[in-house]
Amino acid sequence: MNQKKIVLGTGALIGALSVILVVFGNPTNMGACIACFIRDIAGGLGLHRAGVVQYIRPEIPGFILGSMLIALMTKEFQPRGGSSPLVRFILGFFMMIGALVFLGCPLRMVLRLAAGDLNALVGLAGFAAGIWVGLIFVKKGFTLGRSHKLPVVNGLVLPSIAVVLLGLVVVAPAFIFFSTEGPGSRHAPLLLSLLAGIIIGIMAQRSRLCMAGGIRDLFLIKDAHLFIGFVAIFAVALVLNLTTGSFQLGFENQPIAHNDGLWNFLGMFLVGYAAVLLGGCPLRQCILAGEGDTDAAITFLGMLVGAAFAHNFSLAASTAGGGVSGQVAVVLGIIVASGIGYAGLPQALRNTKQEVKGHVIHS
User: Fold this and answer.
1) How many angstroms separate the Cα of 226 from the Cα of each of 101, 123, 192, 218, 260?
2) In the prediction, which pLDDT does 200 show?
3) What digits encode the pLDDT tens for the residues 296-346?
4) Helix residue ranges, H only, the chain
5) How far apart (Å, rounded) are the C-alpha atoms in residues 231 and 237?
6) CB 99 within 8 A of CB 271
7) Is the pTM above the cut of 0.70?
8) According to a count of CB atoms within 10 Å of the terminal CB, is the N or C end of the chain lower?
């Protein structure tokens, strides 16, 4: 099948499933949000104690396991890693901080926009700007190094954790936390959430869907084939939101959102910046981890720890806006990402200096 049709179909399916999950119980405009769901999982595990966002959401294990299953079937399950794992952990950490200051990942940004939340337009501008800045380093030769083939057991670690998470939400032992109010208390039935996650995981693996990659390719090679997937998410979700009466146009009083434009912009700027350096948005990291990519798995763990930090240290925004600590964390994240970008250039810089020196000598 034509790859563009696969990307388009994947986007349409994600848009539809996202609205369906909201209809059946997920928080408004949060049919699918990697950042919000990982935050809730962190709360469910007791890694933070914000009582309104604690629930081990089955969609995230579904993304990972769906990707793994189709990768195994198509012989694309390839355990690999070793490409600057600690740096990836740090970038994943700050990518989560940026997302929780905005209150959503790139996927929820599109879903919010499809429901009429114009604050998402500000986030989209910031996300694109962050990608553009990250591409400055990429064009100059930035790299986190090559990954290497690893024993199969390495690629099975995160999918195994996903299975454990599903077991915990089903068994509901006393040490697992479940919100009784707030967004964490609102969720679609477990089996529906898991099935939707698996389907999205399968389709995202086949299509290589990535919001950061879509905008990156538009800037870098003028190729829109990944970006059309997110256009499809927007279009299908928009139609279904209008049909179900969930569309509310404006900046004010949007569900689980704030209208602090500067920090909506900078939060998503940090997400786009980190995503380009990592080679994929939060959704793409989950899909790569399901394929056996341990570097993506490390990034996932960085996002999980980032979510815990965000709520333990009041870094995450609320519907009232971002606090000072979260704003400082976003600025720090941008500085750290810039440092990592620069640190990934030494060989390219040395080559440039050598070329200039050689030109001077031979002239």
Assistant:
1) 26, 19, 27, 9, 29
2) 98
3) 999 999 999 999 999 999 999 999 998 999 999 999 999 999 999 999 997
4) 3-23, 34-44, 59-73, 85-102, 106-114, 119-139, 152-171, 190-207, 211-221, 227-244, 261-278, 282-290, 294-312, 324-343, 346-362
5) 10
6) yes
7) yes
8) C
- Kindly list the distances between the CA atom of residue 1 and the CA atoms of 7, 68, 166, in Å, as whole numbers in the listed order: 10, 21, 33
Q: What is the pLDDT of residues 123-155, one digit of tens each?
A: 999 999 999 999 999 999 999 999 999 999 999
Q: Taking a C-beta distance cutoff of 8 angstroms, is the pair 182, 53 a contact? A: yes
The amino acid at residue 315 is L
User: Which uninterrupted H or E stretch holds 80?
Assistant: strand 80-81
Q: Which two tokens stand for residue 153?
A: 């057991």
CB 41 within 8 A of CB 304: yes
Whole-angstrom distance, CA of residue 285 vs CA of residue 299: 7
pLDDT digits (tens, 9 = 90+) for 81-110: 999 999 999 999 999 999 999 999 999 999
Q: Which of 153, 163, 155 is nearest to 62 (CA)?
A: 163
Residue 305 CA to residue 343 CA, distance in Å, equals 24
